[in-house]
Design a protein that fits this description.
The protein contains 16 helices and 20 strands. By secondary structure, the chain is α/β, with parallel strands linked by helices. The strands form five sheets. Strands 1, 5, 6, 7, 8, 9, 14, 17, 18 and 19 form a ten-stranded mixed β-sheet that branches. It has a four-stranded antiparallel β-sheet with strand order 2-3-4-20. Strands 10-11 form a two-stranded antiparallel ribbon. The structure holds adenosine-5'-triphosphate. Belongs to the TRAFAC class myosin-kinesin ATPase superfamily. Kinesin family.
Amino acid sequence: MEQSQKSQNALFQVYLRLRPPPPGQAVSERFLTVEEPGDDAPPTHITLNPPNDNRRRAVEKFAFTEVFEEDSNQLDLFHGTGVLPLVEGVLGPQGGEGRDGLLATLGVTGSGKSHTILGSRTQRGLTQLALDVLFRSISNNILDPATTTSLHATVAASDPSEAQVMSSQMFLDTMYGDPTAASRASSRAPTPMVGESYAPPPTPRRHLQRPSALPIVPDISNVTVDADSNAEYAILISMYEVYNDRIFDLLTPAIPNKSTKDFRRRPLLFKSTEQSPDRKVVAGLRKIICGTMKEALMVLEAGLHERRVAGTGSNSVSSRSHGFFCVEVKKRRRSRMPTQWGGSALTIVDLAGSERARDAKTQGATLAEAGKINESLMYLGQCLQMQSDLGNSTKPNLVPFRQCKLTELLFSNSFPSTSHQSVPSTPSHHHSSQQPRNPQKAVMIVTADPLGDFNATSQILRYSALAREITVPRIPSVTSTILAQSTASHYFSPRAGRMSPTDTERETMEIAALEIARMSEEIDGLRAELLAEQQQRLEVEAHLESMTDRIMEVEAEVREECFSEMEETMEAEMRRWKASWAQEQDKSEEHIDRKLEIYTRSIDACEEDKENTPVRDISLESENERLRREVEILRREVQGRSPSKGQRAPLRDMHVGDLGSQMEKMRVSGGSQRVASGGSPVKKVRKLTAKKWDMMGEDDDLL
Ligand SMILES: Nc1ncnc2c1ncn2[C@@H]1O[C@H](COP(=O)(O)OP(=O)(O)OP(=O)(O)O)[C@@H](O)[C@H]1O
């Protein structure tokens, strides 16, 4: 397993750190053995010894750039894993272009990733140490956002990632509250420096507690790296996490959803932008300009607070996302007419713990997360495997890094940009077309607990190791045992009665032994094949799991879409119904109005009738008068024509007087009847006329 040459060319240097047992814990049997190198060189290989569980498993051997054993401390890791060259590369010393750096940790939950990268309450991690050396190395060249007025504007204008650039003071005030207000409100000393106690502000706007104390050991105050003395620098901090293969900003607070009481965050895209056509960037992040290490650490604390953590069966607080902490070092030539900002970035990644989903007693969302984590780590393993197989970092297409967000983010800056890719489209790019962008330098620290979970640890080691060698243990005992047994039975059996086997017997035994050896070889080969198949099955299972999650996600999305579509249709239907209801109402109101109008008109007509009644009475009177006159004429005619008939009772006495009074009565009663019944006056007139003719008939008869 000659890896030294290959690992020099590899995209990632992969280190292994073994975690010491917690103090007081009974030391059980280690399943990991560090192979001692022959010379004075540090160890690079480990052997994984499967537990003694009657299952004959292969012994696996893994190669790393270097192995740090349990007694290694933070400083050993800081110096041994090449953090200093990473920081120096980012600063671009001596007028250099600078080189992106990436520092990542990977390991089973509880194996010491966070301890290594972020430290503990008492010890600083590699992040704090890197920030310390970075800020100190550029202390004479760094621009302070509080004093350099144009800094914010120029940095924001040159940022190619559509970022929301903010000053540290404004950001920290939003997250923690105004520290000066805290000091004014209490009798405590003003905001202390790193390592001292912070007084919590009385009314923090985001309710975040300022870290009470930040560790100051290990001390590296004598360590600096080369910077560009002719340049001026600005430091931008951004943080994001990859959760379920989506990118979320950790410095933009999530918006609470009132109905679900959940937090809604907008996923960001990893894409090429107008100002960055040659390489992809996480677009739309919030970036904080920090003038001091303390500010950068406070931003880091705020971002860590935002990061999603949840309890699982394996660890009470387990990282369920891949966390990214980016330190962008903006650099420009120091002069009266400053040039555009360029620069490189140091990205520190805390990869999610890869607990095995079923072992972790997880379910629902957590199970889906575990599936996604396992899948992204599987792709990471494929990329690392491919890089070490190729031993050549200049062929990006051969490393399958575009399969998921995690590998895209980790590997896309690993390859030197080709000439056509490197041509910048805007002056904001620091790189000229003649100077292709340097490929990033990447360091991965794998953490493992030699007393922890064998299965989970072996899976991680398979994903991450630079090389792997499987040895299936031979069964020396099979052949020898049979031979020994048969020989012994022949040689020493008292019943055999002879001291040595015949030549034919010996020959048969030899053939049998050879056959056994051949079969044993065959079995070994089959075992190795089985092991490879098992590994493949694990990978396929992880893929299947993540596909199932995806299906569930898509189903949920489709349901949501259907629901909102249905809601829209219902709303449209409701609007239509309301409109036709309003129309109907208008119609019925119109109908009622018309009815009312008719009623009013008839009432008016009645009123008019009332008013017209005397006129009709007058006309009746005149009719009466006319009739009286006619009757008088007729009486006179009758009298003139027959004087003998004059003996008869005069007509006037007999009828006309009665008729007159009767007519008078009718007029009065007819009038009152008309008013009472409201009937038509025309009808009454007709009745009257008929009565007149009836009477005339009577008169005629009389005549
Ligand atoms: N090298 C070490 N020396 C001393 N203590 C350690 C070391 N590594 C880990 N620990 C301790 O082990 C515990 C678990 O470690 P840590 O939280 O770093 O695990 P992790 O891998 O980050 O887990 P997770 O994935 O759940 O975040 C912590 O209490 C930590 O202090």
